[in-house]
Amino acid sequence: MSSLLKRLTLALMIASSLSAMPLRAQEVNLLDGVTTPAENNPTVEAGKYKKDAPWVIGMSSFGVNANTWTVQVAHEAEAAAARDKRIAKFILLDAGFDQKKQVADIEDLIAQKVDAIIVQPVTSTSADASIEKAVKAGIPVILHTGRIESAAYTTEIQGGAEHFGKVMGDFLVKELKGKGNIWVLRGLAGHPEDTNRYNGLLQSLKGTDIKITAEENGDWQYDKAKKLCETLYLSDPNVDGIWSSGADMTRACVDVFKQFGAPIPPITGEGNNGFFGQWIKDGFKSVSSVYSPAQGAAGVRAAVALLEGKELKKHYAYNPPGWDIDKAKKYYRDDLSANVWWPSELSEEQLKQFYGKK
């Protein structure tokens, strides 16, 4: 065998062996800003859930129409599934905040023998038994937008709720120089995301002289939060800062202060187009925590990675830093409605289809 032929043969053998090696967890890009915690993070071994395409992937949402963010999560997940031609069918089921409905939805997906299930839990315990049943049936379960008490799921991509709340809390502590009175606008009572965001705030306030003088659940909704803020303002308008767990509630509270012709106190926000426009126009002090609706797309990518036979980690954390007003200006789109959230993976055509101003 000639020297050249030997080298070519060796190169082909190396290439073949490399192509046969499973992709390691860090090589699977689930979502920009996602990291893998180093401690207590077991590996989902390569090949465990490998299946030949075409695939059917199911998703159980805690509530598609909970607010504008959850609507976009559904759009992002459906768009990601549509982009991958190996996914023959994507089944999205809406629990509508009903724990029993979510159990029934997951049971339905198991009965349909889907290849993978993505779950956004209604509560920290509502889906535990059904998830365990799915995994026992050999169906990988990808969890996001809420932690559960069971560890039976296959992998999770969690926007660090405590981190999210702490980014906001740290901002208020800095702005108020560690003392003053604040209102707290929480999300949906009992939802794990609300609980953990609030815990992040408490971490920030520890050791300060900042007091929570009012605490209400606005359910991450504009209309409910507006009524709450009107009531709070009429009861006692002397507030030094506002911690709001979601941008729709922030927009509502800002509108209330403008309605009464009062100065807008430092108030926390989130990556929402309507909030960004309001922030840029009125120039009040704020910070934007980031909670991309593209977590819906990331769930689809995780399901695909498992079905491809790739190695994943059990836990993924999404803890991006807060955005200032300069970053908000780079994303803000005047030609789109208030209902779009950033960052997004939707195409320009889809953004205009779903969120273009009429």
From TrEMBL:
One of its GO terms (cellular component) is cell envelope. The keyword Glycosyltransferase does not apply. Residues 1-25 form the signal peptide. Its main location: other. It comes from the Bacteria. Residues 64-311 form the Periplasmic binding protein domain. One of its GO terms (molecular function) is carbohydrate binding. It is found in: Cell envelope. Keywords: Signal. Belongs to the bacterial solute-binding protein 2 family. This is Substrate-binding domain-containing protein. The lineage of its organism: Bacteria, Pseudomonadati, Pseudomonadota, Alphaproteobacteria, Hyphomicrobiales.
